[in-house]
Amino acid sequence: MQECQDSLDFSRMIYKTFHENLTSAVLATPGATPESLRRAVLEQARQSRPSHDVPPALSRYVDTVARHAYRVTDAGVAELRQSGNSDDALFEITVAAAVGAALHRLERGMAALRGEEPD
């Protein structure tokens, strides 16, 4: 059991650095969207619940990307473009949502390895 726990501690260190670098790349670099919006999108996807800091139309899109990416359609993206979002902005929102969802899954997987119950 101790060997397993030592392995999980080592994994946390590796994932912590990866997590920090990835999050910084998504949030702290210049972009077409404000950092605050990208952060809100990432956190919404990571927590699997809507955020008041993400506009409703984008919130639905973020939820789709995070939970059911295969359901994203050209028509849905075109609708978001028509409402004033540029391709660059939609790309950044998509990446932030995908990273948030990935971090959520990583955290849940690591918790399962530690024997913790899901929230």
Mind explaining what this structure looks like?
With 119 residues, the protein is mostly helical. It contains 5 helices and no strands. Helix content is 74%, strand content 0%. The relative contact order is 0.15. The model has no long low-confidence stretch (mean pLDDT 87). It has one domain (2-113).
Kindly list the characteristics that best describe this protein.
single chain, 119 residues, mainly alpha, 5 helices, globular
Low-pLDDT segments, ≥5 res: none
Spell out the helices and strands N to C: HHHHH
Described by the principal axes of the CA atoms, the overall outline is globular
Counted up, domains total: 1
- Count of DSSP strands: 0
Number of helices: 5
Helix content: over 70%
Cα gyration radius (Å):
16 Å
**Gap between N and C termini, in Å?**
24 Å
User: Residue-averaged pLDDT, rounded?
Assistant: 87
Strand content: under 5%
Category by helix and strand content:
mainly alpha
The major sheet is characterized as:
none
Describe this structure in a few short sentences.
With 119 residues, this protein is mainly α. The protein has five helices and no strands. It has one domain.
